[in-house]
Design goal:
Layout lengths: L1 H27 L6 H9 L2 E3 L5 E3 H19 L5 H22 L9 H20 L7 H16 L2
Antiparallel strand pairs: 1-2
Length: 156
């Protein structure tokens, strides 16, 4: 048992000191990202977007997932009904998760990505509420929604 404990102590102490030295070297070096910066970002609940704004990581993950699933769903031609339903169900689930987590949240409500995603969701809802759940979406509506998704993605 002493052998196992001693080995564990050697591994832990030997394994940790190089990390500390590397972090110290990077921190005192030029403007490169260090291990310390990586550790900070891992525990930070915010993330910088492409546009340079700092937003909650959870929002960005949810919004990116929504953009991806809506795009997949809209890109489906509808000929394979099973695939179409799977994509539509995934899109509905992403919309629910996004709205449940972020609808009305002041931290993101004024963001361009939020506004664009809200517009895309409203367009979808308006179309399906008028045309029914199995209606084929016209190209102009699809194009408008895809433009909104592109706008949202550019700010994420």
């Amino acid at each position: 048992m002493l052998y196992g404990g001693a080995t564990l102590a050697v591994i832990l102490s030997g394994g940790m000191s190089p990390l500390l030295v590397k972090a110290e070297e990077k921190a005192s070096g030029d403007d490169g990202d260090g291990v310390l910066d990586a550790l900070k970002s891992m525990f930070d609940s915010n993330e910088k977007t492409k546009s340079g704004k700092t937003l909650p990581k959870a929002y960005l993950k949810s919004a990116r997932d929504l953009v991806e699933t809506l795009r997949e769903s809209l890109g489906d031609d509808g000929k394979d009904v099973a695939k179409f339903r799977r994509n539509a169900d995934a899109a509905k689930q992403s919309i629910r998760e996004y709205l449940n987590g972020w609808r009305g949240q002041q931290a993101v409500a004024a963001e361009e990505s939020y506004v664009a995603l809200e517009k895309a969701i409203r367009s979808l809802a308006n179309f399906y509420s008028k045309a029914g759940p199995f209606a084929t979406m016209p190209d102009d509506v699809k194009s408008s929604i895809l433009d909104d998704l592109k706008t949202a993605e550019s700010f994420l």
